[in-house]
Amino acid sequence: MNIFRFAGDMTHLISILVLLLKIYATKSCSGISLKTQELYAIVFVARYLDLFTDFISVYNTVMKLVFIGCSLAIVWCMRLHRVVRRTYNKDVDTFRHYFLVLGCFLLALFVHEKFTFQEVLWAFSIYLEAVAILPQLVLLQRSGNVDNLTVQYVFFLGAYRAFYILNWIYRYLTEPHFGRWIASVAGLVQTALYADFFYYYFISWKNNAKLQLPA
Amino acid sequence: LKLVDSHDEL
Asked: How confident is the model over A194-206, as pLDDT tens digits?
């Protein structure tokens, strides 16, 4: 464990807590893409299949349970909570995310570390996580004025994988045979997708104005 | 429980 990875995990945890806070405090999920949340639930379930078979550390197991639990709770809340579900605007959340699931699964069938059930699903979850934010970014661009908590949620979600890139560089430099290419390349793509969001986030922060993404 | 380091990251 290195500081970059720990910072990444904490930033990831913060992003999920910010989202839960927004939904719980405002009893609303307006501006949040249910499709992105569903993709994240699939990512965590597909990636943490080894939860009960491989023990790495208490930290690892606890964080996996938290990520799976929170992502399922958010999807449940947005779909079934009698108050919150009414604030979900499916007319703007129209990204066809099933194509992302299919595309990532097909890619995982061809590019993986080992052709085993668990490894193919692990690669699938890595690819899917890289593109899972797309429905949310599209929704942000569609719904002009976005509340602050939603913007913070997307910011922390983007920042966490940037920390992971530093972690992979650090591990590549310090561990002899560290070759985590699937995760590193997908992580670069994932962070690059946030590039324009980060740019407009920084501009809005500098001008102390609300985030305005170009439509 | 086998200890693996194949995917030790979250």
From this structure: 999 999 999 999 9
Chain A interface, best mutation among B3, B4, B7, by max A CB count within 10 A: B7
Domain boundary assignment for chain A: 3-205
* ipTM here: 0.86
Contact A55 B1 (CB under 8 A): yes
Contacts of A71 (CB under 8 A, 6+ apart): A16, A37, A40, A41, A43, A44
